[in-house]
Amino acid sequence: xxxxxxxxxxxxxxxxxxxxxxxxxxxxxxxxxxxxxxxxxxxxxxxxxxxxxxxxxxxxxxxxxxxxxxxxxxxxxxxxxxxxxxxxxxxxxxxxxxxxxxxxxxxxxxxxxxxxxxxxxxxxxxxxxxxxxxxxxxxxxxxxxxxxxxxxxxxxxxxxxxxxxxxxxxxxxxxxxxxxxxxxxxxxxxxxxxxxxxxxxxxxxxxxxxxxxxxxxxxxxxxxxxxxxxxxxxxxxxxxxxxxxxxxxxxxxxxxxxxxxxxxxxxxxxxxxxxxxxxxxxxxxxxxxxxxxxxxxxxxxxxxxxxxxxxxxxxxxxxxxxxxxxxxxxxxxxxxxxxxxxxxxxxxxxxxxxxxxxxxxxxxxxxxxxxxxxxxxxxxxxxxxxxx
Length: 388
Ligand SMILES: *Cc1c(COP(=O)(O)O)cnc(C)c1O
Hints:
With 388 residues, the protein is an alpha/beta fold. The protein folds into two domains: 6-253, Type I PLP-dependent aspartate aminotransferase-like (Major domain) (Aspartate Aminotransferase, domain 2, 3-Layer(aba) Sandwich), CATH 3.40.640; 256-384, Aspartate Aminotransferase, domain 1, CATH 3.90.1150. The protein is 38% helix and 15% strand. The chain contains 14 helices and twelve strands. The chain has helices spanning 6-12, 38-45, 60-73, 84-95, 110-119, 135-141, 164-173, 223-236, 242-253, 255-274, 293-299, 314-324, 354-359, 376-384; strands at 77-81, 101-105, 126-130, 146-152, 177-181, 199-203, 217-221, 279-283, 306-311, 329-330, 340-342, 366-370. The strands form two sheets. A seven-stranded mixed sheet has the order 1-7-6-5-4-2-3, sandwiched between helices. Strand 4 (146-152), helix 7 (164-173) and strand 5 form a beta-alpha-beta unit. Helix 1 packs antiparallel against helix 3 (60-73), helix 3 (60-73) runs parallel beside helix 9 (242-253) and helix 4 packs across helix 8 (223-236). The longest helix is centred in the C-terminal third of the chain and has 20 residues, at 255-274. The protein is globular. The N and C termini lie far apart (54 Å).
């Protein structure tokens, strides 16, 4: 399947049928698998013979999702997890040990910051936070025991980015693994591994599912890395269920079509917002006025569906606008066909300290919209009537 293009791989990779010759992938709702004989059972457990044993280890539906996502990210292997947070935690726990050091972007998903500061820190793993875009800050934060660079690009909600190819040169020079959370763009719009990253992490809950139906996550990378992460997952238990794997597998089929539509809608909205008096600033990478527009053009094939804007009047007017919407859903989720609106400072980033929030540039007047697939004219009209 190597020579096929992205859209074909998204539909054909990992596709298999059972003896029933069904055309849509079956869901293997089973917790365990039976063996022909005691000898076969022994061989499966001792890894002399490949094959399924128990669904915490492997499951054919989960395997189909893993193969397809690995192909789309251009990686050797993938392990699916029960959520995006499980994917981040499994990566850290599988690859690092007590006494190691992580350099992480301070412009990450709020729970990722909380995970590092409250859970990972308990295991004597030291963490330094740096500004995502500041390449020299990444390099100066490196210590003898640094094992991992961890980041999200573009960041959510502000769309800050880092030059992945240049950062990967720094990480390689110091024998540090570079892990990129690619949930915001998905493999349809950005392939960090092709740019030099070692690991790509996903919350498949977002665009990969694309319809807000279930939680799922994944880690992709080379076979050696994924074997270690898979070992952690099969032993500690955050494995992806077959049913949720089937949902995200179906999501991958239409991913690039949806990401293009999300991006088109988001750009239309961002351009309109920029022209509104009540709007102080619009954050969208696809606006040529964005300082990182050229870098984004060089490493992404689209700008994605997240548009954030700052309104005059701080939290009070932000809440007023959010409450006055009729079409948009007030929810912190993103990557759904339905457009969603949220006040980042009090929701997704609410558990950060004031200082962490300011460092991440999340101000009180900031509103984030995850632009869905409705007719963008209706979304603009809905926001317009809130700005009176
Ligand atoms: C949502 C999200 C996560 C966490 O994923 P869950 O599936 O909710 O556990 C991690 N990173 C990013 C960028 C996200 O948007």
